[in-house]
Design brief:
The complex is a heterodimer of chains A (233) and B (194). By secondary structure, chain A is of the alpha+beta class. Chain A has helices spanning 7-19, 24-35, 38-51, 65-74, 86-89, 91-115, 193-196, and strands at 122-129, 135-142, 147-152, 162-170, 175-180, 187-190, 200-209, 223-227, 230-231. In chain A, the strands form two sheets. In chain A, strands 6-3-2-1-9 form a five-stranded antiparallel beta sheet. In chain A, a hairpin with a 4-residue loop joins strand 4 and strand 5 (175-180). Chain B is mostly helical and 194 residues long. The chains are: A alpha+beta (233), B mainly alpha (194).
Chain lengths: 233, 194
Amino acid sequence: MNIRDNPELRDRLAAEYVLGTLKGGARRRFEGWLHGDAALRMLVLEWQERLVPLGEFSPSRVPRARVWRIIERRLHLEPPPKRWQFWRRDPLQWWRTLGLTGTAAALALSVVLALQGPAPQIDTLATLTDERAQAALLVTADHRRGIIAVRLVGTTAVPDERSLQLWAITQQGTPRSLGVLDEKGSAQIALNERALGSDVALLAVSLEPKGGSPNPNAPTGPVLYKGSWVRML
Amino acid sequence: MPYDQPTDPEQLRTLLLGAARRDAQAFHALYVAASPKLFGFALRIVRRHELAEEALQDAFVSIWHAAGTYQGALAAPMTWMAAIVRNKALDILRRLDAVPEIDLGQFDADVLDQLQDSADGPAEALQTSDEARALAHCMAALERAQRQAIGLAFFHDLTHGEVASQLSLPIGTVKTWIRRGLAKLKACLSREGL
């Protein structure tokens, strides 16, 4: 069928295509014509302009907040940085300062560990430092036993009535809770990709209400210590 | 709501252009302004909250990606986005092979009764676009059954046969009504300058 010379039919088909009553083989045929016929596409656009405003006559409803969060996640649109998310402001700068203090401290500690005699099979470790670059926490990964161990070093202590919580921060800046430290500041965590995956940019410890952050996906308190994994050869 | 008029087309157009420039904040403002209307529309089509949420998510992901192709001269921003929402909602129904229950009385109350021709009627109260107001005016000029047939087909993606069985009418009658109704709408809207 040739519809090019039949303006009335073209218009009617475009209208029923937009309305939806053009179905099955007739619809597929019409879509075939649309490909090579810009004027026909224009007719469809015009009918959309006429008919789609019908949609505005459904009662408005505010969608749940999670809908936007899912859209944001699907499109990788990050929310603006919050105060505690210091690593998002300038991730590169971060890595540079971290590289200096973290690596030096980790190497020093690895020497200490090596001198301590029959050491466990520690192959990856991180020293978490405070804002003055003082080592405060040691995190060690033992692949043979499948355990990540956390312990406080130096004069660090867990404040009364509060908890310290360990997070892995991904390259995208998303915090992942690894666990809440006990009153002595120790923890043993099963070794897994959440903690050690290649997407983990750094580890951070935040100060939280007793028992840990009420938000499972982000710290609520200030970040006290941070550092990155160092793999030992 | 950060804007006096949630669906002010100039505002929406500006935000849509912002999204085209990959401005995530403009995109979020666009979502805040347009999502209640678009969610209501999606819900009207799919009838279930979780499906309407999925349609809205799919639609906004597409809106973000396609914002650069939006041509302001050819389409009103709300119409452009609503067409995307409708496609996503209908895609979901097709994928699930789901036919939502159609309650004619509810449909009339929710949708058709809003299409009344009055300067301070529901179209004003709903803060609809100029296009929608003109359409309400022209739909009001149709016979009730014509209005019903076109409305049902549009919101529920029905065939002529399905519209006929919903309205308990012969299919030939429905076909003629829809054809004449669409022609009348077109004539009326062109008089309205659209």
